[in-house]
Design brief:
about 90 residues; alpha+beta; GIY-YIG endonuclease; 4 helices; globular
Amino acid sequence: MNGYYVYVNTNATFTVLYVGMTNNLVYRSSQHRNHIFEGFTNKYNVTRLVYFEETRDVQAAIAREKELKQWTRAKKIALIESANPDWRDLSDG
Protein backbone atom coordinates (compact mmCIF):
# COMPACT_ATOMS: atom_id res chain seq x y z
CA MET A 1 0.00 0.00 0.00
CA ASN A 2 1.13 3.51 -0.75
CA GLY A 3 1.49 6.32 1.72
CA TYR A 4 0.33 9.82 0.96
CA TYR A 5 1.82 12.91 2.51
CA VAL A 6 0.52 16.38 3.19
CA TYR A 7 3.46 18.71 3.74
CA VAL A 8 4.42 22.29 4.42
CA ASN A 9 7.49 23.87 2.88
CA THR A 10 8.97 27.29 3.52
CA ASN A 11 11.83 29.43 2.29
CA ALA A 12 15.12 30.26 4.08
CA THR A 13 13.63 33.30 5.82
CA PHE A 14 10.37 31.53 6.79
CA THR A 15 8.25 34.20 5.10
CA VAL A 16 6.40 31.90 2.69
CA LEU A 17 4.40 28.77 3.54
CA TYR A 18 3.44 26.26 0.87
CA VAL A 19 1.08 23.33 1.47
CA GLY A 20 1.27 20.35 -0.87
CA MET A 21 0.42 16.66 -1.19
CA THR A 22 2.43 13.78 -2.67
CA ASN A 23 2.83 10.02 -2.59
CA ASN A 24 6.65 10.24 -2.49
CA LEU A 25 7.85 12.82 0.03
CA VAL A 26 11.57 12.23 -0.45
CA TYR A 27 11.36 12.64 -4.22
CA ARG A 28 9.03 15.63 -3.99
CA SER A 29 11.33 17.38 -1.50
CA SER A 30 14.22 16.82 -3.89
CA GLN A 31 12.20 18.36 -6.70
CA HIS A 32 11.55 21.47 -4.61
CA ARG A 33 15.21 21.78 -3.53
CA ASN A 34 16.40 21.44 -7.12
CA HIS A 35 13.83 23.89 -8.53
CA ILE A 36 12.40 21.35 -10.96
CA PHE A 37 9.07 23.15 -11.27
CA GLU A 38 8.34 26.62 -12.56
CA GLY A 39 5.86 28.59 -10.53
CA PHE A 40 5.25 29.57 -6.93
CA THR A 41 7.76 27.35 -5.13
CA ASN A 42 10.53 28.15 -7.57
CA LYS A 43 9.78 31.89 -7.62
CA TYR A 44 9.85 32.16 -3.81
CA ASN A 45 12.62 29.57 -3.25
CA VAL A 46 10.37 27.35 -1.15
CA THR A 47 12.77 24.47 -0.51
CA ARG A 48 12.63 23.66 3.22
CA LEU A 49 10.33 20.86 4.42
CA VAL A 50 9.14 21.88 7.89
CA TYR A 51 6.06 19.70 8.46
CA PHE A 52 4.38 16.59 7.09
CA GLU A 53 1.62 14.12 7.86
CA GLU A 54 1.19 10.63 6.41
CA THR A 55 -1.97 8.70 5.60
CA ARG A 56 -2.81 5.57 3.60
CA ASP A 57 -5.98 7.17 2.24
CA VAL A 58 -5.52 9.37 -0.82
CA GLN A 59 -8.90 11.02 -0.36
CA ALA A 60 -8.02 11.90 3.25
CA ALA A 61 -4.73 13.41 2.05
CA ILE A 62 -6.48 15.53 -0.56
CA ALA A 63 -9.05 16.71 1.98
CA ARG A 64 -6.37 17.53 4.55
CA GLU A 65 -4.34 19.49 1.98
CA LYS A 66 -7.42 21.54 1.10
CA GLU A 67 -8.14 22.07 4.80
CA LEU A 68 -4.61 23.31 5.58
CA LYS A 69 -4.62 25.62 2.58
CA GLN A 70 -7.64 27.39 4.07
CA TRP A 71 -6.00 27.92 7.45
CA THR A 72 -4.59 31.26 8.52
CA ARG A 73 -0.85 31.71 8.58
CA ALA A 74 -0.93 31.79 12.40
CA LYS A 75 -2.72 28.45 12.56
CA LYS A 76 -0.23 26.87 10.12
CA ILE A 77 2.67 28.20 12.20
CA ALA A 78 1.16 26.71 15.36
CA LEU A 79 0.83 23.34 13.59
CA ILE A 80 4.44 23.44 12.40
CA GLU A 81 5.76 24.46 15.80
CA SER A 82 3.80 21.70 17.55
CA ALA A 83 5.87 19.11 15.69
CA ASN A 84 8.99 21.04 14.67
CA PRO A 85 9.57 23.97 17.08
CA ASP A 86 13.01 24.75 15.62
CA TRP A 87 11.74 24.76 12.04
CA ARG A 88 14.45 22.25 11.05
CA ASP A 89 14.52 21.20 7.42
CA LEU A 90 13.08 17.70 7.72
CA SER A 91 14.32 16.75 4.26
CA ASP A 92 17.88 16.81 5.62
CA GLY A 93 17.47 13.40 7.15
